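Hi D.,

Good news: the full-assembly prediction came through. Inputs first.
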Amino acid sequence: MTTERDELDAQAGEYVLGLMSDDERRQFESMLETDGEARRAVRETQQRFADLDAAVPAAAVPPQLWARIEDEIGKAGNVVPFPRGLTRIRPRSGLKFWHGFAAAAALALVTAGAFLATVSPAQPQLIVVLMDAQAQPGAIVEAFAGQRVRVVPLSRFEVPAGKSIQVWTLPNPATGPVSLGLLDGASATNLTGPVLPEPRLEQLYELTLEQAGGSPTGKPTGPVLAKGFARAPQI
Amino acid sequence: MLDHAGLLKACAGGDRTALKNLYDAEAGRMIAVAQRIVRRRELAEEVVQDAFVQIWRKADSFSAEKGSARGWMYTIVRNRALNLIRDGAREDLIDAETLDRARDESADIGDAFERLSANSALRRCLEALDVEKRQSLLLSYVSGYSHGEIAALLRVPVGTAKSWVRRGLLALRDCMA
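Then the structure:
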């Protein structure tokens, strides 16, 4: 004899085992949203089988796997308070990086134009030219839908040993700056930040020099290398 | 014993170290669990990579109502692995005519079963099942096989395989209650 409870438990079992067709699964998942009994049945089935997962001998974990996960979630994708020091330019004597900036300045706008015309197949929603302390363009950020940004250095970034360049944006002053990830040396880098509102006009983007691997606090702590505000491309 | 639920809560608050702790504790076993389903090691690593990104992004949706935190994480891994093979990425899909293949499968699920600890209720209750129901459940849970694949491996009609799984599930529930 099959009771209603049996039917639900058997369905939950087939759901947990992954035996449902796409249609059945969708139907069952919409039931899960409203039906606490169905959620109970799924939870209990999962718990019954859990020993099979716990008993498996661990495989060797490749060393680069964690770095790939970190890349995807953003190096320090935390929403943090807006630091007062954000716009303060700190002393940075000895950073060769700035010489590169100055030398590249003349070419920067030309490079930017060429890049925008040829490299980017998807249209960015917004473009930011990040200016350095000498008011020269140091990098371009293209902001695409879905939290994806492409950062293009306009000069050779020489990062001192033990340091990283971190990319930040300020979706709104109430939540504070959010890390979009680390720049990969001197080359253009695609980053996917944490889930944020779509980028908007005049949104602040900036690069700071942080310790290797990113700011330990999840908010900008090092000197601001360049910053700028988002503009809409007139394409 | 690691506090999985506490670490997930910290993940929801943006603490990456908490995610790393979960990763250090579980990634190796998760790769092994995924590999039993997707077969190829690099696919299994991809599954675990995706799973940790999801765990990070969905950590705030975890609640005790969803069961144990650890179980929730492994469910994500299994679902990623199952999605991958549904999309056709499992290259050596079972060939029912290859007896060697079938022997491999029964070795795999036999191994998974033998590794259950002697005092596991799951082990005791799987042991109490008819052999065909036990095999059907293990082929599905451990290796991610569909009704049709289980039927082919055990050389019975699909309807029979479905009924073995269903009756096995209910018998397991009653035994473990």
